[in-house]
User: Which sequence fits this backbone?
């Protein structure tokens, strides 16, 4: 359904209005009535009436409660909007949490009655919503419309009514250096904010946007926040991790009778970057027609920034490409002042035009590396990624040389899937530069990674159980100010699990251990959901790269239905049973049956829903026995004593086939889930 309101809000959430009495195709910009100026574009649908410009609903209450367990945040956001008009309205609510956040709970209120959402296949949810709104009933639907953007449509909102919306979302908080940052959109400067931080490693809790009141409680810290006059619209919370260098952390969850889940993180310690090693850097710039406008300007600026940072001991080459390639040199040359000046002039002259062949450009860049004499070889791609993905990935996968490829997506229309996968295959990183203002900071961080790869050729062993479905499928190198995060499943084993991260530091093989006892590690349902999210992200990336195959789409839908989160193929639908029309009943029953089938297939996901611990789950972070000690670093043989019983080298997660369920078991699970849904 396209009725309602499309918005360009950058922070927070709000309800935008369309009068049910006004239906003319028109649009106009409006400003919300609360402090943050949120721009709204209105669409109405009555061809017989002129467009009516209406303000966004005022936000009268906002409350947020967050549990941060280790580095995972579960956020419950409650917002109440008031219809101060005399019209019956349809509202559209927009929320933009971080790119990594996934909505896992949704509800709205009709008066004092709470209507809880259920995850259904998206097209079915839309059909039910449209069928019910045509007779002016009370459904709501929450969908994912773009990266990190969620919309919620509700009808009707009666004159004078307060409409309460509750959204729960989970996300992994990335670590940079010693700092972890949590960001959440808040629309009201008077929002009530409470955060429970459960991480014994956490120190120096602070915020550049809010005044904090921090209280030590059992199991962690309780933090209350109040917005300052200068910063309203987003809460930014930071805390510092204090731990022994090279110490992995692991969080595990297992329900009785089911396979378990784990999330492991390892951060690059500060102070371990040796001198900057001489390196060969090849810049590959996309000058195709799709880069016209600000994209080519930003690419030229970013490339010039890298060139200026190179030292005299480095070597440099620049290759421009569209559907052909144009190299500055045959192979990298010493980056003296003259070579850098030539490179800057070459970059400044680039203008867009022609097609795009990333695969051809990548092949030429790799072939042009020449004799590295043991120097690191780095290729930096600056492109929007609009090219044939299969050809480019085949080039990367066939190459067996130790060339690292870093991809930089420039502009808004970036093919994230291709550029992320290219970087992963060639053990680099993907960076997105959307605006010119981001170039200096992003290029600086990228250059620090190129200059200081700390841990390379990374693999993971799991001892005490059999590990499978490890994500990411190819484990990346670990760079300065970065962290390695790995999620996976495990099965079997009675005692402690032992995790060993192996790699090479400064040419020497090293290994780091940590262990966890699943039965006593606390209930952390978020660990299972986070694994499911990363599994689905991998499948969605496959769809973007290779096209939508039925088996890929079906697994995305099945996992999202079973683990309860929104994807491009699923949505939350909230509707009172009494409001389901005869026209919608068949579609809704079929969608719920599909959800029951997903539950029967993924019984471990159903078990997660009954796990205790509340938002965040669990009380403590399982700590490591660090095999690397003081700054001198304890270098150990790469092999573990006594072979690992799990994944021997989990750079690619092994696939585990799920057992086939009998038709009777499938039907029983569907009926049980249907009864549980009706009891809501």
Assistant:
């Amino acid at each position: 359904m396209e009725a309602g309101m499309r918005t360009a809000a950058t922070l927070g959430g709000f309800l935008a209005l369309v009068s049910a009495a006004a239906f003319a195709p028109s649009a106009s910009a409006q400003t919300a009535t609360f402090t943050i100026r949120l721009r709204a574009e209105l669409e109405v649908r009555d061809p017989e009436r002129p467009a009516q410009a209406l303000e966004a609903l005022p936000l009268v209450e906002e409350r947020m409660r967050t549990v941060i367990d280790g580095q995972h945040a579960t956020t419950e956001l409650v917002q109440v909007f008031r219809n101060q008009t005399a019209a019956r309205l349809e509202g559209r609510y927009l929320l933009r949490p971080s790119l990594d956040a996934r909505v896992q709970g949704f509800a709205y209120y009709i008066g004092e009655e709470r209507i809880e959402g259920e995850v259904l296949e998206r097209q079915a949810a839309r059909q039910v919503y449209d069928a019910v709104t045509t007779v002016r009933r009370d459904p709501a639907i929450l969908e994912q419309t773009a990266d990190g953007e969620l919309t919620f449509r509700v009808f009707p909102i009666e004159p004078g009514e307060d409409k309460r919306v509750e959204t729960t979302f989970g996300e992994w908080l990335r670590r940079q250096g010693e700092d972890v940052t949590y960001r959440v959109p808040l629309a009201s400067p008077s929002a009530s904010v409470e955060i429970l931080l459960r991480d014994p490693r956490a120190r120096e809790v602070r915020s550049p946007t809010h005044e904090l009141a921090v209280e030590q409680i059992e199991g962690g810290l309780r933090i209350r926040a109040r917005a300052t006059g200068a910063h309203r619209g987003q809460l930014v919370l930071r805390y510092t991790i204090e731990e022994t260098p090279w110490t992995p952390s692991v969080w595990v969850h297992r329900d009785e009778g089911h396979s378990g889940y784990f999330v492991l993180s390892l951060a690059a310690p500060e102070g371990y970057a040796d001198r900057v090693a001489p390196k060969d850097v090849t810049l590959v710039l996309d000058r195709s027609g799709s880069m016209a406008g600000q994209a080519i300007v930003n690419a030229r600026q970013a490339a010039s920034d890298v060139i200026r940072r190179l030292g005299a001991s480095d070597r440099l080459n620049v290759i421009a490409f569209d559907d052909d390639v144009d190299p500055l040199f045959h192979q990298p040359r010493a980056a003296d002042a003259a070579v850098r000046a030539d490179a800057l002039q070459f970059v400044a002259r680039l203008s867009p035009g022609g097609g795009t062949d990333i695969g051809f450009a990548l092949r030429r860049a790799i072939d042009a590396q020449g004799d590295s004499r043991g120097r690191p070889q780095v290729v930096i791609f600056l492109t929007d990624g609009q090219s044939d993905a299969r050809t480019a990935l085949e080039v990367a996968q066939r190459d067996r040389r130790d060339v690292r490829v870093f991809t930089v997506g420039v502009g808004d229309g970036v093919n994230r899937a291709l550029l992320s996968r290219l970087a992963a295959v060639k053990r680099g990183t993907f960076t997105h530069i959307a605006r010119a203002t981001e170039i200096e900071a992003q290029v600086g961080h990228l250059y620090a990674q190129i200059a200081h790869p700390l841990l390379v050729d990374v693999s993971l062993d799991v001892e005490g159980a059999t590990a499978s479905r490890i994500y990411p499928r190819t484990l990346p190198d670990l760079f300065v100010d970065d962290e390695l995060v790995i999620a996976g499943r495990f099965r079997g084993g009675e005692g402690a699990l032992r995790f060993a991260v192996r790699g090479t530091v400064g040419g020497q093989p090293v290994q780091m251990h940590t262990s966890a006892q699943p039965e006593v590690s606390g209930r952390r349902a978020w660990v299972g959901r986070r694994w499911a999210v990363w599994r689905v992200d991998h499948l969605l990336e496959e769809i973007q790269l290779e096209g939508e195959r039925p088996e890929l789409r079906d697994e995305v839908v099945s996992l999202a239905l079973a683990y309860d989160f929104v994807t491009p193929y699923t949505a939350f639908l909230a509707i009172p049973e009494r409001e389901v029309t005869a026209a919608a009943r068949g579609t809704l029953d079929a969608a719920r049956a599909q959800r029951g089938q997903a539950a029967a297939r993924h019984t471990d996901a159903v078990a997660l829903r009954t796990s205790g611990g509340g938002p965040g789950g669990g009380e403590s972070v399982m700590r490591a026995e660090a095999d690397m000690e003081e700054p001198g670093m304890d270098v150990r043989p790469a092999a573990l004593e006594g072979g690992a019983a799990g994944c021997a080298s989990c750079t690619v997660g092994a696939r585990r086939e799920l057992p086939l369920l009998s038709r009777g078991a499938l039907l029983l699970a569907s009926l049980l889930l249907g009864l549980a849904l009706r009891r809501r």
